[in-house]
Write a structure and sequence with these properties.
Layout lengths: L1 E10 L2 E11 L4 E6 L5 H8 L7 E6 L2 E2 L5 H7 E5 L10 H5 L1 H5 L4 H14 L4 H4 L9 H13 L5 E5 L7 H18 L2 E6 L2 H7 L2 E6 L2 E6 L1 H6 L4 H7 L4 H7 L23 H11 L3 E5 L5 E6 H4 L8
Parallel strand pairs: 3-8, 3-9, 6-7, 7-8
Antiparallel strand pairs: 1-2, 1-4, 4-5, 9-10, 11-12
Helix pairs in contact: 7-8
Length: 312
């Protein structure tokens, strides 16, 4: 879907992005992670040509982005940034409708799309449609920013530290919202973050950048158990590695027949969270239930533990 081929960006003699190649498959989430100054934001902004590359090319769905005028390209690609970037003088509905209006959608279609996205992001249209950004919480503003990026039904969504300014509780909810919406619309997402936990939670693939280069591009499990360099090894974090491995698996993967006492968990709960709940409750098993509270079985601590071990 997104093919980045030997992309370089120079400012004077310095290569901020240096001969980078990577592919993001259709309907997947790829995360670019790295330290400050590694080139990750510059790489992202070259996809929608907010930054023009010095060398190389980028193809979206097989088409070279340089064959599309920049302003038209950006209307086809959703873009969400830290701090939301909302227009303060426009209402929530007007903010979300920005790109569809530029694209010439008819009013009825725009109104339907705005209401659909507000409902999906748990912003009741009748309550929030006519409010201005200054009347919203930080988490609500962030949701409006992502809704605006998705409004014109883009196949590609670019996100630059979209949740960096949110507190941990709101941030986790915003991440869950993103994954739910991404799966519903099968949007291809390229996201920049400096937070490895966020990268592990969101990414189907993770590109680790250092000094303008991609030093490893792999799925989260491979990064954890087979880091390509000492830099990647340190970025992943040795002490956190077992728990990050557990975060990649769900209770539904290992639920088994049987019953148990204790506060129940659901199939979508990560093994990391289930393990923590067991420790907190002082139990070695927990019941597993569905959304309606119907019993599905149980999960055992000794069935979770092997998933935290380094593969042989």
């Amino acid at each position: 879907m997104i093919d980045i081929e030997h992309i370089t960006k120079r400012y004077g003699e310095e290569a901020v992005v240096d001969d980078v190649s990577m592919t993001v498959e259709r309907g997947k989430v790829a995360v670019i992670v790295g330290t400050s100054g590694s080139g990750k934001t510059t790489l992202l902004r070259m996809v929608n040509r907010l930054v023009e590359p010095s060398e190389g090319r980028i193809l979206i769905d097989g088409k070279d982005t340089h064959e599309i005028p920049g302003h038209l390209l950006r209307r086809q690609i959703g873009y969400a940034i830290q701090g939301h970037g909302l227009f303060p003088h426009r209402t929530v509905a007007e903010n979300i409708a920005t790109v569809p209006k530029l694209a010439g959608w008819e009013k009825r279609r725009i109104d339907d799309r705005v209401d659909e996205l507000m409902t999906l992001f748990q912003l009741e249209p009748s309550q929030y449609r006519d409010r201005h950004p200054g009347e919203l919480s930080g988490g609500q503003q962030q949701r409006v920013g992502v809704a605006r990026a998705l409004a014109a039904e883009p196949d590609v969504l670019l996100m630059d530290e979209p949740f960096g300014a949110l507190d941990p509780i709101i941030r986790a909810k915003a991440q869950d919202d993103l994954l739910e919406i991404q799966r519903r619309f099968e949007t291809t997402v390229l996201l920049v973050t400096h937070d490895m936990d966020e990268a592990m939670r969101l990414g189907d693939q993770i590109a680790v950048m250092a000094e303008g280069k991609i030093v490893q591009y792999a799925d989260p499990a491979t990064l954890l158990v087979k880091p390509a360099s000492e830099f990647v090894d340190n970025l992943v974090g040795t002490a956190d590695r077992p728990f990050r491995l557990l975060s990649l698996r769900k209770v539904g993967d290992i639920v088994e027949p049987g019953s148990s006492e204790g506060e129940p968990v659901q199939p979508a709960t990560s093994l990391r969270e289930a393990y923590a709940n067991m420790l907190w409750q002082g139990r070695d098993t927990l019941p597993v239930v569905d959304d309606q509270g119907n019993a599905l079985g149980r999960v055992r601590m000794d069935a979770i533990s092997p998933w935290a071990a380094r593969p042989a």
